[in-house]
Design a protein that fits this description.
Number of strands: 18
Number of helices: 10
Distance between the termini: 38 Å
Strand content: 15-25%
Shape: globular
Helix content: 25-40%
Largest sheet: 8 strands, parallel, barrel
Radius of gyration: 23 Å
C-alpha cells in the first residue's frame, strides 16, 4: 500500500499499411486534424468522443447487485500483453471461474485518459477492459488517478508526469467537477461497468497543517462523482472511501484508538475519524470500501502472521456497524510485509497461500462479501512470488500459480450471500487451524510449519505444513 507500481505512460503505437493514394491522403488529413493544438496543447492521439461506447459490451438489465465476490486488481503489468498463446492461456484460466477484476483509469496499466481538457485517450484502458470482457469477469473501475491539468501540472499529450508523487496528487478543488465529468465519461464509454470505486487510498488528501486526513476534500469529491455517475445511470453501484485502515503498535498512545484494538495492535484514530466524516456526509453509497494490512504501520505481525489476521475481522465488524451493514469490500488486503521495493518474497509460496487464506477467512468473519487481491504481476521472467500466473512475455507464459487457485476456489465456494456454519474442531487442533464452512464445503488451513493430524467436522485427516485443504460435506 502506498508503494504500488504504475504505468510509465509509454505509448504503444500501431502502424497500419495504407492501401491506395486516396486512403493515405485521408489518413494524413485525419492526423493533421487530431494534432492541431488546442490553446497551445498537443492533442496527438486524442479524440473528443471519449464517451462513445467502446466495443460491444454485454450490459445487464436492471440494477446490479452491490456485491461482486472475490477477485483481483490489475496492476502495471498484466495478461493483456504478450504472445497470443500466453494471454489466451490466462483468459482460459479465468474463464473457468470468472472473477471480478479491478482496473484504475490512470496508472497501473492505463495511460492518461484526458491529457487535455475535453480530449481523451483510452487506448490502454480499452485494452484492459477488453481483456476483462474476454476472460468473463465482471469489470470494476477505480476512479483514480487524475490528469495533470487537474492538479497543477502541464496539459497536453506527452506531458504526463508519471512520478509517484505526481500520480498520487489529488485534483485541485477547482477541478473536482472536471474529475466528476471524467468519471461520467468513463461510465458512458463502458456501460458494462456497473461498479465504481471513488479514488484510491485518499492519495493526495493529507492535511499537513493539521496532521490529519483531508476528509472534507475527499468527501466533496466523492459526492460530486457519486451524483455524476448516478446521473449517467441510477443503477450504477458506487462506493468509497477506500481508506487505508492503518494500525499501530499496541504500546503506542499517540493517535491510538481507545476502542478498536486487539493483540494485533490499535487502529489509528485519524483513519477512523476520516471514515466517520465520510460516512456522515456522503451523498450515498451502494457499498463501502476499505483497504489495509494485517500488520502494523511498522510492519509488525502481532502476535504472529496468522494471529495478525484478526485485525481484518475487527476492522470489518467496526465498519459494518458504522454503516448499518452496507456491503463491505476490501479493495486491497495484505498479510505479508513488503521490503523497500514493495516486494514480498520472504515466504515460500505454500506459507504465503496459507496466510492469505487465513486473511480471507478473517475478512469474511468481519462481514466482507467482496475482496480484491493486488496481483503483483511481473513484466517478464519465469518466477513471480505471490502472482496469479506466470508472466506473459513468452509463449509458454500465463501458467496458473497457487494464489490463483486459492482465490478462484474461494470465490466459487463462498460467493456473496453464503450462509456460513460452525463445524466441530478437536480441542487440540483449535490453536493450529483456521476454518470456514458452509453447508457444502469446509476450508481448513494448517498454520504450523509442520504436518499435523487434524479432526475437523468429525473427520480425521493429515495435513502437510501450511497446507490449505478443501473438504466436501
Amino acid at each position: 500500500m502506498g508503494r504500488h507500481e504504475w504505468n510509465s505512460g509509454a505509448r504503444r503505437w500501431r502502424f497500419t499499411a495504407l492501401l491506395g493514394v486516396g486512403v493515405a491522403a485521408l489518413a494524413l488529413l485525419v492526423t493533421l486534424l487530431n494534432t492541431l493544438p488546442s490553446d497551445g496543447d498537443n492533442t496527438a492521439g486524442t479524440s473528443r468522443d471519449g464517451d462513445k461506447v467502446h466495443g460491444t459490451p454485454a450490459v445487464p438489465s436492471g440494477a446490479a447487485a452491490p456485491e461482486v465476490g472475490w477477485g483481483f486488481t490489475h496492476t502495471q503489468y498484466s495478461a493483456d500483453h504478450g504472445p497470443g498463446a500466453a494471454t489466451e492461456r490466462v483468459q482460459g484460466l479465468l474463464a473457468q471461474q470468472p472473477l471480478p477484476q479491478i482496473q484504475h483509469i490512470m496508472g497501473w496499466g492505463a495511460g492518461n485518459p484526458e491529457p487535455v481538457k475535453g480530449r481523451y485517450d483510452f487506448e490502454e484502458m480499452d485494452r484492459r477492459i477488453d481483456f476483462i470482457r474476454k476472460s468473463g469477469g465482471p469489470p470494476v473501475v477505480t476512479l483514480c488517478c487524475s490528469p495533470d491539468w487537474m492538479k497543477g501540472g502541464k496539459s497536453g499529450a506527452g506531458n504526463t508526469d508519471w512520478s509517484q508523487t505526481a500520480l498520487e496528487t489529488a485534483p485541485d478543488r477547482a477541478h473536482y467537477k472536471d474529475f466528476a465529468a471524467l468519471a461520467a465519461t468513463v461510465a458512458k464509454r463502458y456501460p458494462d461497468v456497473r461498479h465504481f470505486i471513488v479514488w484510491n487510498e485518499f492519495k493526495g488528501f493529507w492535511n499537513d497543517s493539521e496532521a490529519r486526513w483531508d476528509y472534507e476534500g475527499y468527501t466533496e469529491l466523492y459526492n460530486l462523482v457519486y451524483k455524476a455517475l448516478k446521473k449517467v445511470d441510477k443503477d450504477i453501484m458506487v462506493g468509497g472511501p477506500y481508506l487505508v485502515m492503518d494500525s499501530l503498535d499496541p504500546r503506542q498512545t499517540d493517535n491510538a484508538s481507545p476502542t478498536v484494538k486487539g493483540a494485533w495492535g490499535t487502529m489509528d484514530q485519524r483513519v477512523l475519524d476520516a471514515f466517520a466524516y465520510w460516512n456522515k456526509h456522503k451523498a450515498g453509497a451502494d457499498f463501502v470500501v476499505v483497504d489495509g494490512s494485517s500488520y502494523t504501520k511498522d510492519d509488525d505481525l502481532l502476535p504472529d502472521e496468522f494471529g495478525a489476521t484478526a485485525k481484518l475481522t475487527a476492522v470489518g465488524k467496526w465498519v459494518r456497524e458504522q454503516t448499518h451493514d452496507l456491503p463491505l469490500w476490501w479493495a486491497e488486503y495484505y498479510v505479508e510485509p513488503a521490503d523497500g521495493n514493495d516486494e514480498r518474497q520472504g515466504w515460500s509460496e505454500t506459507h504465503r497461500v496459507a496466510v492469505q487464506a487465513s486473511g480471507m477467512i478473517a475478512m469474511t468473519r468481519g462481514g466482507a462479501s467482496s475482496g480484491f487481491y493486488w496481483n503483483p504481476e511481473k513484466e517478464q521472467g519465469s518466477g513471480c512470488a505471490g502472482c496469479l500466473w506466470t508472466p506473459t512475455d513468452r509463449a509458454a507464459g500465463g501458467g496458473e500459480l497457487p494464489m490463483l487457485g486459492l482465490i478462484s476456489r474461494f470465490g466459487r465456494e463462498f460467493p456473496p450471500g453464503t450462509p456460513y456454519e460452525t463445524v466441530s474442531v478437536a480441542a487440540d487442533d483449535r490453536p493450529n487451524v483456521r476454518v470456514l464452512a458452509d453447508d457444502k464445503t469446509v476450508l481448513v488451513v494448517n498454520t504450523l510449519d509442520r504436518s499435523i493430524s487434524a479432526k475437523i467436522d468429525g473427520k480425521r485427516f493429515e495435513m502437510a505444513a501450511y497446507e490449505v485443504k478443501w473438504l466436501s460435506r
